């Protein structure tokens, strides 16, 4: 590839602070409308209702929990983070990409300790 084409590939459009703020506000609104609270405050019942995973993604999360030696509480935190990522991406379902991202944040959190 010519250099000019490589430069085009490497250029990414970054969101402005205003765009990020709008996405966060919209995600927060979705959360409040769905369960009358932020995802961080979801009860066990709400987690089961709003953070459903298909079999493949549930197996992925369970495998990560085992490999990382995480608790049931960490499992719930990962689901809440995944639900928030989905809300930020305006997705109704938590998919493999989203659950993987949430797991990676948990791994980073543990590495920092």
From TrEMBL:
Pfam families: Mg_chelatase_C (PF13335). Residues 14-106 form the Mg chelatase-related protein C-terminal domain. PANTHER family: COMPETENCE PROTEIN COMM, MAGNESIUM-CHELATASE SUBUNIT CHLI. This is AAA+ ATPase superfamily protein YifB/ComM, associated with DNA recombination.
């Amino acid at each position: 590839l010519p250099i000019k084409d490589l430069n085009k590939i490497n250029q990414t459009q970054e969101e402005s602070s205003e765009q990020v703020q709008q996405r966060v506000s919209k995600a927060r609104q979705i959360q409040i409308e769905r369960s009358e609270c932020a995802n961080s405050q979801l009860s066990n019942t709400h987690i089961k209702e709003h953070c459903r995973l298909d079999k493949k993604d549930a197996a992925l999360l369970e495998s990560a929990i085992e490999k990382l030696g995480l608790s049931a509480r960490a499992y719930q935190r990962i689901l809440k983070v995944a639900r928030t990522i989905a809300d930020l991406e305006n997705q109704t379902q938590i998919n493999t990409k989203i659950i993987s991202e949430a797991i990676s944040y948990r791994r980073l959190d543990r590495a920092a300790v």
